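Hey, resending since the last one bounced:
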Amino acid sequence: MSSPILTKGQNISLPVEVTELDVIVSWVDPERDLDASALLVDEGSRVRSDADFVFYNQPESPNAAVRYLGSSSTDEGKQERVSIHLNSLPADVEKVVIAGSSDDHVLGNFGKLALQVRDQSGSVLGEFFTADATWERALVFGEVYRRDGAWKLRAVGQGWESGLAGLAQDYGVDVDDSAQDDRLDDVVVVEVADSHAQATTATGEIVDVSVVDIDPPKRGVRTRKPVARKVETASVHSCRRRGVAHCSVVLGFWCRFG
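The structure tokens again:
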């Protein structure tokens, strides 16, 4: 099969033997960041729940059929990748929408934007290039969709000036648009093995603590789905690490009483 360069609105059939897709969103300016995302939608082009929105703050769908793989640099610029396991998609998911967005820049500042779809062997199945974006902050690059029991790829090229939040809401996602700066209850906390220190409590008692890493959610769009706390944490102001005056979120650590 050839790997056609698609024009806006054009679609192609994917080979029946294809079971996995590597979806690549790329751009040429390495100083700017673009975030790829995917939405699993039903026949009404709506997500079944917020869990069907795969992006930087929710990197995989419930059964991991679609996963956000993050970004990397290339000789031509930068890219973000999303993987799709076609055989694992639920039967009521009619299509996977592939989008790209920026919190900091309008897409017209990025120059040429590209979508490339590869199969599990790395062969290119189709590509779509666009430089039409102007004031939009989010763009649907393409769709992988079912048609008569087979999978197809369509180039879309539709933009949203309202950004990723507006795009996600139009597909039925319940976006949490409240302020994010002080929501420390939502951080993911993981204990670092064999990393222990001591802390002084409010009464002056010295106790053992464990140093834990904080993996804060990326700023920007968030769904309203709550994030479970992994461990209970002590006050950052009562922590003491060996050789460090105090633990802080800026350093990327909190301490937990042992």
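The CA atoms of residues 25 and 115 lie 5 Å apart.

Sorry for the duplicate.
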